[in-house]
């Protein structure tokens, strides 16, 4: 007699659930760019989505409480001269976001706590180096103000955002860089390139430590570092079959696991949760989200389940663990963009009967405090991320007062003194600003109603005038006919007069 032993895992029954439409974000003009990007970035304060914009590039930033139908005239972040290709929130400041565009410029923005009241066109700092479009922006996981950018000029640049200077220029790629990922402490950099190779690079000097061909297909490849150092990749075979693989950094050319999933054209984006070792595969144009658990037991990558939706996805964003709801055992939350303009919110939950805090589901997770400064990191120091406990939940802090870099003026402190940035950038309370915004929207609605009434009145007056003119024209026409008849009876060429005269004789 044989028995089938079911693998023991606390995530075996994880299920996905889409929130109701009124709890999602609707009427969003999602970007139609063909660039392989997620078009979405999310943190515990804001949701940012790249949108279609005439005359340049823009993205929309929404506070999480602003759900439902988004007004067509909602303020945007719109300072780029070309379409925005990628956006990324700073992991150490939830109010700072970076964007890369086809105009070859990377811009860093500061978003107020209450969101935007008017369109934002002035960035905190412009990072200018690339000669072609910038399709990738990535923040360092532990060092403050360290940002990586990659462009179609095949160059990778690491910046100190606080001073606006380039720290490292990496020129080892012969073709376009598809993706980049730092390891757990930020001491290594993993990149994928159009030449089908994945590379592990020293980010401080740009030296390639090891490289290997990841997937044989010519379409875009993605790769991420797992928490304990392994490398997970997604790509295509020669027959255009989608694959994923698991590798060790010491032997990149020989994967531990190589699995073919299906045949599709959509690039798969691996989204990773380091606390639970779960990998979520989200393909562009797919209507499913597959999720796997990475363990030390064969086959190492264990398929768990698939979340099915009726509509294909255009882009997707993943909430950091500190933004999840620990009271409902939510371990992940996704913001899924549809072609119809709906941003659908999907929660991944572990079913538990107890309402107490589940310590096994929520180990200490990455917080928003940096472990290093930019100078310390470029000087050679490494440090693991600072971890926080979610036992009492996580509340996003107010806008941070400074992002200073030692011994240098910080461009992100523009217009601030004495550590009172939030008071100077927003001298009135958030409630007052929100009241002003509501009043402005009400006034706009009243103006629209008055304009409609004015058009209706103008239309009625025009119709009445036209009818009156037609009546007058008809009267004038009738009178002219009567006069013609009278003239014909009493006038003429004199023959009738002559006949009457002869008769009288």
Automatic annotation (TrEMBL):
SUPFAM superfamilies: WD40 repeat-like. Keywords: Coiled coil, Repeat, WD repeat. WD repeats lie at residues 77-119, 127-169. One of its GO terms (molecular function) is actin filament binding. Residues 433-460 form a coiled coil. PANTHER family: CORONIN. Belongs to the WD repeat coronin family. This is Coronin.
